[in-house]
Amino acid sequence: MSSPHQPPPPKGEAISVGAPTATANPPTAAQVIAGLRATTEGGDDLVQLLTPEGVRVHHPDFDIDVTAEDLCGLYRDMVLIRRADREANSLQRQGQLGIWVPLLGQEAAQIGAGRAMRPQDMAFPSYREHGIAWCRGIDPTALLGIFRGTDQGSWDPKETGFHLYTIVIGNQCLNAAGYAMGQRFDGKVGDADGEATIVFFGDGATSQGDVHEGMVWAAVYDSPLVFYCQNNQWAISEPLERQTRVPLYQRARGYGFPGIRVDGNDVLACLAVTRWALDECRTGNGPVLIEAFTYRMDAHTTSDDPTRYRLSDELEAWKLKDPIERVRVHLVREGMADQDFFDGVQAEADELAVRFRDFCVNMPDPGPERIFANVYAEESAPLAAQREEYLAYHEGLEPLAGSSVDAVAGGEH
Amino acid sequence: MAAPTIDRRAASQAADARPATQTVPLGKALNMGLRAAMERDPKVIVMGEDVGKLGGVFRITDGLQKDFGEQRVLDTPLAESGIIGTAIGLALRGFRPVCEIQFDGFVFPGFDQIVSQLAKMHYRSQGRLKVPVVVRIPFGGGIGAVEHHSESPESYFAHCAGLKVVACSNPADAYWMIQQAIACDDPVMFFEPKRRYWEKAELDPTATPDPLFSSRVIRPGTTATLAAYGPMVRTALDAATAAEEDGHSLEVIDLRSLSPLDLGPVFDSVRRTGHLVLVAEAAAESSITSEIAARVQQECFYSLEAPVLRVTGFDTPYPPSKCEEEYLPNLDRVLDAVDRSLAF
Hints:
The complex is a heterodimer. Chain A is of the alpha/beta class. Helices cover about 40% and strands about 10% of the residues of chain A.
């Protein structure tokens, strides 16, 4: 590998190009920020296999052999999950979802990572990982309940190898670190068919203590854990320079494991780097940090208004690096796919959207018993009594209830 | 109340190999209980700061790493969120982690993982994910310690749905309750009365334990009821002994389980005595004792001869240790409350 530990030479105009000497003054805060902004293009260490123009380039350490069929598959994945994502946005605007968390622009970062996983691997998502869910065989309709308010995650994490969405920022990094320790304790790490875990989080999460602690734990227990940071440049309204003074992938060095920055809009590079990282982990050489350098093309959530804090110029610049378009261009230019293929994927996307929408609007609301269900593996007597009391009260109501009841026990009446 | 799933048969089988009744300190009983649980189930692991070679700062895990290895007794990095957060991941993987939080006041860096993930995992997964994690916390004051080493944070956890909270008060309970907590499929916050670690009592490892989430009358009486848990059980018993000289027969209840509360024995007792004094080290406001007082007035309104009284720590931060004898409920304050109740 081309020394992923080495920081790229700073490009900011305020910083001299020559290597700083031991006697040089440390850079000022303004110079550091200028350096960070200079990494908007990802810097020299960015691993890229497919340029925004759809030109296949090669990398000395992370090259990958893909067939036309593989590429078409990745294209299809990205188109379909984008279609579901856009449909969900519309459903929110039409009042069918309480909120939606768009993944627009991050399709390559997710499909590349998701398709690098093997069945025995485990993923711990944040809450924007609709593309990873897709790769784990979870139908997009299974995501809807969270955002419609009918459940808090409807899939089986054990069957799918995809943990529930985690909304408290960074929590999942520790849960994943523990799970990965367990993989090692179970003797499932150490050969090419071993197991690995991958945890997803964003640039904002890197400021959380749990992410730091997760990296400490994973490092000292030699855990098979890939930390996959989708740096989409924005934590709601806060830009990257509010989170860090070094490019994020370089933080790995402080924990004692490799850190790699990959073009997060390049599905091939994400696939290649993640596959390598997972293999490192499953064979016992984990952990690894991957920074997928990407961009959140839409709002943080449907409740957000990015026009208040970022310029449309930035968005326009990133549109030119669209993750799907570069694959389409490549497929066409290389003659790997014909119009029938693209039409077919489009038709499939439209069918998915219709099915997705129908499913959403027909989801039944949970009954009041859902409030009390599964609080404990072994239900407690006081909670059972509270449930029975409320359900009996509810039974006696006219169809609409709504307000909570101040239950009064009548022990001696 | 729902019976906990301690495997009594397995427990007594494991106990068969042990000598019968012995006199041990509470800390040693916990050590024996942990050892029994680890012998019974290879998925039980112990993790925390200094729990390995050192055996924990209170030596509760003494010798366990030597006998079970570094993969089952983990000296963790020094971060409580990390301990709880990784224990959750290990539990999702099928392990049954027992986390040691070194002191009560150190649990708060792990509070987020406890209330956001540990407590809610079973609920949000609709029962698909079980996280049988035990969090052991030495709690309470009376040892002349510096700040953050003498707190009673149990009410925070009892307030949080999805957690179960228990407190042991004597060696026999310590031995059984830790094993029952480990066998429980729900997360259990396990509070240990640190100032009682060295107090000895008889332990019969062949006995049949009471269910984990049950309270118990430990001294019958007729004049008034004292209910306490953890370190204050000893104080309540001492008060009952002293009250005997004044002709008062105090019934003492060891609550043992703080969430869920098992208040049946308390209600029965109050219906007989008409007087209830609750004793706890924790501050009074919005606490376990507040909850019990509310429930007793709901259930025993016509039986009460006096308002429910509480003898607790004050609504202050834990004070400098030279003040702790006044801060902590003691025999005199308990008897004063009994007198006030009886004179009402």
